[in-house]
Amino acid sequence: VEVKIEVVLPEKERSKEEMSPNGKASPLIYKVNGTARHYHLEEHPIASNPYHNPKDVVEASVCHVKDLENGQMREVDLGCGKALLIKEGGEFHAVGHKCPHYGAPLVKGVLSKGRVRCPWHGACFNIGTGDIEDFPGLDSLPRFQVKIEKEKVYIRASKQALQIQRRTKMMAKCISLSNYNLSSTNVLIIGAGAAGLVCAETLRQEGFSDRIVMCTMDRHLPYDRPKLSKSMDSHPEQITLRPKEFFRTYDIEVLTEMQVAAMDIKNKTAVFKDGFKMEYNKLLIATGNTPKGLSCKGKEVENVFNIRTPEDANRVVKLATSKNVVIVGASFLGMEVAAYLAERAHSVSVVELEEVPFKKFLGDRVGRAVMKMFESNRVKFYMQTEVSELREQEGKLKEVVLKSGKVLRADVCVVGIGAVPATGFLKQSGINIDSKGFIVVNKMMQTNIPGVFAAGDTVMFPLALRNNKKVNVPHWQMAHMHGRVAALNMLAHGVEISTVPYLWTAMFGKSIRYAGHGEGFDDVVIQGDLDELKFVAFYTK
Questions:
Q1: pLDDT above 70: percentage of residues in the chain
Q2: What are phi and psi of 115, to 5 degrees?
Q3: Which pLDDT score, from 0 to 100, does residue 354 have?
Q4: Residue 517 counted as domain residue
Q5: What positions does the domain Rieske occupy (predicted)?
Q6: Fewer C-beta neighbours within 10 Å, C or N terminus of the chain?
Q7: Measuring CA to CA, which residue among 410, 347, 352 is closest to residue 384?
Q8: Range of the domain at 200
Q9: Which of 109, 133, 164 is the last residue of a domain?
Q10: Mean pLDDT of 181-189
Q11: Domain end marker among 370, 398, 417
Q12: What is the signed CA dihedral for 424, 337, 331, 443, rounded to 10 degrees?
C-alpha cells in the first residue's frame, strides 16, 4: 500500500517542487533572513497517520443526528476509548475528550465560536483541527473522522489516538546540525520556562529549520513550575514538560546551568558567566523573576527557603513533616505552600504585612473568606506585622521573631514576599527597561532593539482588553502565549497578542480561577455564597 501524505501550506509558502521520482515529498522551502532554507517536516510518532494499520482502527455509531442540538457537546464511548462529539453550525466534529494539560473532561468546558475551552485552566482548542489556540499546555487534541449514514453519526478513530488523547503538532527538524559553529546560533532563547519552550516549539511547528539554543540557570529541562508550590513533593522527572528525547528529535538544544552575565547587543552576542560567548541572529529573553529574600537579622541561617527549584520544594516538605513551619508572605506561593503543608506539619503560621491575604488582588471580602478557610484547617495568621529576626541553634533556624514582639517556633521558614525581574544582566545593553526592571515590549513581544524579543514574567506588554495599557502579568498561561507570539514574529508573521489573562490556584480542595486583569478595581460585586466559597466575584471600576 502506498500512502501519500500531503502537507498544505499557505499559498505564499507553498513549494513549487513536485513529488520527487521516489515517491517521497521534496523538502519544502522556507525563507529565513532572505536566504532559502530546506526543511523536512517531521511528525511526532503519536501524531502520524492514524489509519495506516486497519487493526488499529475502530468505527462506531455513537448517536442519532437529532440527539445533539447546535452548540452541544457529548462524551461518547467507542469501546476502546472515548471521544468528544460536538455539533456546531449544523456540522459534527469529534476530538479527544480530555484536556492534554491536566486531563480535565472537556465536556464540562465551554463551546463557543468553533473552540472548546477547558473547564479547569482555560486552555482552548479548535474543534475543526484539534489545535491548541490558548494555553496552558503544549499539546493539541487528536481529531477523529465523523460520517453520517442513515441519520446515524459514526466516528472512525485510531485506537492509539483514543488512548493517548493528545497530539503533538507537526514539527520541522534542524538541517545539518554538524555544520554549525558551536559559538553561534540562529535563535538564542535565554530562560527555559513556559515562554522559552513554547517559543522553540512554535518555531519548529512553523517549519523553522535553523539552529535553536535555549539556556537556563536551572539543572533541569523545562518543567511545570506551578507544581513547585501546589504539589511540593513532585520530583523533577515527574514534572518535566517534555522528555529528553523530544529535544533530541526536534533539535532544540538546551544548555543547563548556564547563566548569561551580559549582552553585547551591537555584536549580537551573549556573554556567559564562565566567559563563553554565543552569537545569535534572533534573541528571546524569558528569564522570569528572582524571588525577594528577607533583609532582617539572621537571614543567612539554615532552613530558610525561597521555593525556586524542585529540590527546594522537596527539601521543605521533608523538613516540615511533623515540625513547625513559618511562611512569610500571604502571596499565592506562600498560601499554596501553607495549604500543602497544613496536614503534614505540626504547625503552620503565616506572617503578612497586609490585614487580609490577597487584598490587593482579590479584595477584602474574598480575602477574608479564603483566610477563614485556612484558619479552619489549623493555619495561624499573624497579620500587619513582619519579621525582625531569625534566631538559630547550631546554625539551624529555631525561632522567628516578629516586629510585634511575638516569637514563633520554627524549624523551617518559606519566604514568599514577591519577586523582581531577572534582568540585571541587561544593564547598559540598550534594551528598554522600566524603573522596576521590567523589559518593555510592544504587541508583537518585540523590544526596542530589532530582532530582540522578550516574554513571560519579566515583561511589560500592552493588554488589549485594558485599552493597550502596559501591564505585567506573571501567569503561567500568559507566558505560553508570549512565547508563541514572539516566535511567530521572529518569522515575520506580524501577530499581535490579544489573549485574556488567566490564573488558577488550588487550596484545600477548593480552586480559585481568575480571568481578566482587575488592577485598579474600586468595587467587587459578588454573586453566590461567599461563606461556602461557592461564588463569582466581578472586579469593577
A1: 89
A2: -135, 145
A3: 96
A4: yes
A5: 60-155
A6: N
A7: 352
A8: 184-290+421-491
A9: 164
A10: 91
A11: 417
A12: 60
Residue closest to 307 by CA, chosen among 329, 333, 343, 331? 333
Whether residue 311 contacts residue 407, with contact meaning beta carbons closer than 8 Å, is answered with: no
Over residues 299-314, the mean pLDDT reads 95
What is the Cα–Cα distance from 442 to 213, expressed in whole angstroms?
24
Same domain, 402 and 432: no
Residues 327 and 250 in one domain: no
**Bridge partner list, 462:** 470
The domain that contains 233 carries what CATH number?
Answer: 3.50.50.60
Query: Does residue 174 fall inside a structural domain?
Result: no
What the block records as the C-alpha cell of 517 is 486583569
Q: Amino acid identity, residue 218?
A: D
The Cα 195–Cα 202 span in angstroms is 10
Amino acid letter, 374: F
Please indicate, yes or no, whether residues 479 and 403 belong to a single structural domain of this protein: no
- Element housing 536 (H / E): strand 534-540
Judge whether 259 and 273 are in contact, CB under 8 Å. yes
Residue 213 C-alpha cell reads as: 539554543
CA atoms of 111 and 236, how far apart (whole Å): 35
Please give the model's pTM, rounded to 2 decimal places: 0.88
Residue 198 CA, chain-centre distance (Å), reads: 8
DSSP 168: P
**What's the sign of the alpha-carbon dihedral 499, 502, 313, 387?**
positive
Strand, helix or coil for residue 401:
strand
Residue type, 24: K
